Amino acid sequence: MLLIALFLHAWMHVKNLSSVPESLVTVLVGMMLGLVLTISPVAGQKGTLDADLVQLTFTIVLSMAALPIIIFESGWSLRVRDFVSQFGYIMFFAILGTVASVVVVAQLLLWTSGHHSVDNQRLAIAFASLISSVDPVSTLATFGHLNVDPLLYILVFGESQINDAVAITLFRSVNEHGVGSIAMLAAGMLKVFFGSVFVGVSLAVLAILVFRFGHTGASPAHAVLMIFVSCFFTFALGELLEFSGIIAVLFNSIIMGSYSAVHLSSESMALASFLLKQMSSLADTLIFLFSGVMGIFAVTTGGRGLKLGLFLSGFCLVARVLAILPIGLLSNFIKRLVGRRLPKENEHMISWKHLVMMWHSGLRGGISLVLVTELGPWVEPVVKVEMLNATFVMVVLYLLLFGSSTGLMLKCLGLPMGDDVDPSATLYTEADRQGWPWRIMVAMRERIMLPVLVGSEIAWERTESYADGVVAETLREARSIEIAMDSGAAESPPPSRRHDASTHNVLLDLFGTADPAHLHCYGDVVGDLRHRRSLVQGGASSGVGDSSLSDGSGHTPSET
Fold this sequence. Notes:
Layout: H1 2-15, H2 22-39, H3 51-76, H4 80-85, H5 87-111, H6 121-131, H7 137-146, H8 150-177, H9 182-213, H10 220-240, H11 245-259, H12 266-300, H13 306-339, H14 352-360, H15 366-373, H16 381-401, H17 406-413, H18 436-454, H19 460-464, H20 470-487, H21 501-511, H22 519-548
């Protein structure tokens, strides 16, 4: 089913079907898988799905395999300058907005408790907390393809990352310790948040020091694998210490993405970015695939949770409006004050169009589904199943309504995108005067990070000697040979160029072969086509020659 989903994604790209989100297609494929499991005895008796097996598999795959790499890649690829320039406003939306959303949704759940099983304050706040974690994966993918306004992108992206941290810490505090007093709840949240940040940053610093003093850049393949595996170790350690693995991974990836480049070659960084992005995409696909399976599980439980899911979908829309609108007004008021000292800030006001798109981007996804499976034994199993099914209903409904209409909404609002936006544009440049968040970060870099993680200078001669150019040179050589064979200038690929020992070893470590472009396989196919073409042309010319000897009656002169 995973292969089918990937094939459909590729076909949609070829046909340019951007109006249908890939995640929704993956959910439908997952529902097909759920049907197969239902009619087979693999996941329980025929006609049913074993609840414990489904939830256990779903939790393991999402928590230990999918979420760490997704969160790590988002922090690794973060545009730090844009993020820091809007950091204060992002924190407003992520913290104040999440708290406001939780309060509104929880109250609405209690008011309508006669129609579902969420009938006490602790359960309502826990459910509102986990469902307030936004996951605009398909929206951000559309933003990237359409090249939207960088202010809109960084606000949606930044809010979703910090919002996850706030929602997770709030949920786990309520889930493990109850509601209690507001002071105790806030203390628990701060403990989890800052403890997770400390774990993530500490492990990132340790990894960079290994790169620096261990000369890991000399082995690009191992450096890339260390970066990849580090996200899973960071997540596991954060969870083991009873903090948030997701928050730890996020801050770990931001530090590693900022300081790894000075100890590794540019090609090593590019390969790491490629690996992280593709594994993150695969993990996203897995999450929505399992979401489809959960949909069939919801059906086999008699549709329990459908009404709650519909209620919840409406409540979250109302809560998001009540959270985003006043915070947007507050942010613009502060921007005007800041603009008196930093005129550049006046160019980045949050318009009502930005606020509408932020409201529209409030999709839910894997984190909410993972958190609902973590509800403790204080929740009755039947109620837990209802909440799980309701979460799935909301995830799919939002994907259908909002994930598939992102491009249309952008066009209707008239927000700049495509050729109207310079892909390399940033909100602030080095020539602009900077605000206090950027100045604080620069001071930390100069006084702490650079002396510890980099040293007095960057050893450029060392990084350049770490087989820089191997991948680029291999691609250039492969392209030139392909052109020569296609044009007929070469009958077959020339013998492989002899590399020195270090370059040869780098190629083997990275690709498992000294011919990563598989030029000889390509050459064999080209040669076979040429041979077949020559046979066809030879047969045709032979036929033409025979016909020229005919007298038109179908007989050759010798026969007559």
